């Protein structure tokens, strides 16, 4: 197969973590860029030595040398851009979340099926070497049947103050959408994608609205921000398994940065990420065991690795490394969390 041309839309921010992957892959070349900000477009184009720079996304889609569209825009714009790209006959890799609402993800899946092209969510946590190694152990049965999980991604005074994060019209939500999607996707993947059937959730913004609130990210927290700063949820699965999820940008937590953790509890043992600790008991001898998995799969920097994997899947005709159907389950839970908080009741998921 000839080289796959990549066109990136939304060329600032997270896109800079994708460029090394496209440059590393033997199958891809960045051929075009699109952004609504001319200065950012030119600065990135100069850095990457890419001459095709489009202020209009439609012009990038019309470029016959673009085979893969890499969507790195704010979350609320993912679905319409991805659907348009798929209808134009392009493969699509899209930053997380695939879309904030399940109905949008369903439309993206329909567009994918109609086009016969690839669609993948850029869930880079799955491409970390430690996560890959732990997943291999879980798939080999080290945990037995996983019946409970605890996952959290908590920040202390790290509220992203830019408008694309703190206004729902751009972001689709606060930390639920921004960082909750990371740890939730990783947990569902580790659990083997058990089907979620209900969610009970709460959201809040107590600290952001207090006098003197601040963010180590820099800049003032907008007083008219309309997204949550904190959320927690309890999820039930069709297997009877359960999950507790917690996310926040501002929580008074014991770390000055970011605390990302996951515990999975099974009938044979439990495990912790990112430490790769495995705890179990030899019941016949009444021995409690605790070990740390030493294996790690070096795939390189995870954001870059996901791009390399996407291109390789296209070339090999292999399944999408992160199927959109799995992202649909993530979207159902996150959307259900918001609904549950608003309606103050448990939400059943279809």
Which terms would index this structure?
Dihydrodipicolinate Reductase, domain 2, 15 strands, 350 residues, 6-stranded parallel β-sheet, Rossmann fold
Task: Set down the secondary structure blueprint.
Blueprint: E1 4-9, H1 15-24, E2 28-34, H2 38-48, E3 52-54, H3 57-61, E4 68-71, H4 78-87, E5 91-95, H5 102-115, E6 119-122, H6 129-139, E7 146-155, H7 163-166, H8 168-171, H9 175-190, E8 196-204, E9 230-237, E10 242-248, E11 258-266, E12 269-273, E13 277-282, E14 287-292, H10 302-316, H11 324-343, E15 347-348
Parallel strand pairs: 1-2, 1-4, 2-3, 4-5, 5-6, 7-10
Antiparallel strand pairs: 7-11, 8-9, 8-15, 9-10, 11-12, 12-13, 13-14
Helix pairs in contact: 1-10, 4-5, 5-11, 9-11
Explain what this protein looks like in three dimensions:
The chain is an alpha/beta fold and 350 residues long. The chain has two domains: 140 residues, NAD(P)-binding Rossmann-like Domain (Rossmann fold), CATH 3.40.50; 190 residues, 2-Layer Sandwich (Dihydrodipicolinate Reductase, domain 2). The chain is 34% helix and 26% strand. The chain contains eleven helices and 15 strands. Strands 14-13-12-11-7-10-9-8-15 form a nine-stranded mixed β-sheet. Strand 5, helix 5 and strand 6 form a beta-alpha-beta unit. Helix 9 packs across helix 11. It is globular.
Quaternary organization: single chain
Number of strands: 15
Instruction: Report the helical percentage.
Output: 25-40%
Number of domains: 2
- How is the CATH topology of the largest domain named? Dihydrodipicolinate Reductase, domain 2
Order of helices and strands: EHEHEHEHEHEHEHHHEEEEEEEHHE
- N→C terminal distance: 41 Å
Give the count of helical stretches.
11
CATH superfamily of the largest domain: Dihydrodipicolinate Reductase, domain 2
């Amino acid at each position: 197969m000839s080289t796959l041309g990549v066109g990136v839309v939304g060329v600032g921010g997270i896109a800079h973590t994708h460029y090394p992957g496209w440059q590393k892959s033997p199958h891809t070349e960045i051929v075009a860029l699109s952004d609504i900000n001319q200065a950012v477009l030119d600065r990135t184009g100069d850095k990457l030595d890419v001459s095709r720079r489009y202020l209009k996304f439609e012009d990038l889609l019309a470029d016959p040398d673009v085979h893969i569209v890499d969507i790195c825009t704010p979350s609320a714009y993912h679905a319409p851009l991805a659907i348009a790209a798929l209808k134009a006959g392009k493969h699509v890799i899209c930053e997380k979340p695939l879309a904030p609402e399940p109905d949008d993800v369903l439309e993206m899946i329909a567009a994918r099926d109609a086009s016969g092209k690839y669609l993948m969510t850029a869930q880079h946590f799955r491409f970390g070497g430690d996560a890959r190694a732990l997943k291999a152990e879980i798939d080999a049965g080290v945990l037995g049947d996983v019946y409970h999980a605890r996952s959290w991604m908590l920040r202390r005074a790290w509220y992203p103050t830019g408008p694309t994060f703190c206004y729902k019209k751009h972001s689709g939500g606060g930390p639920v959408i921004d960082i909750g999607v990371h740890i939730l996707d990783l947990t569902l993947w580790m659990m083997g994608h058990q089907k979620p059937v209900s969610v009970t959730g709460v959201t809040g913004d107590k600290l952001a609205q207090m006098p003197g609130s601040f963010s180590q990210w820099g800049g003032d927290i907008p007083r008219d921000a309309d997204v949550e700063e904190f959320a927690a949820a309890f999820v039930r699965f069709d297997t009877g398994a359960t999950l507790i999820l917690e996310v926040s940008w501002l929580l008074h937590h014991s770390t000055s940065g970011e605390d990302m953790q996951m515990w999975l509890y099974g009938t044979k043992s439990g495990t912790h990420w990112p430490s790769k600790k495995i705890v179990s008991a030899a019941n016949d001898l009444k021995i409690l065991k605790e070990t740390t998995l030493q294996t790690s799969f070096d795939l390189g920097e995870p954001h870059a690795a996901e791009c390399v994997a996407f291109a390789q899947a296209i070339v090999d005709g292999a399944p999408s490394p992160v199927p959109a159907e799995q992202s649909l389950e993530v979207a159902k839970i996150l959307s259900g969390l918001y609904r549950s908080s608003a309606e103050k009741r448990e939400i059943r998921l279809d």
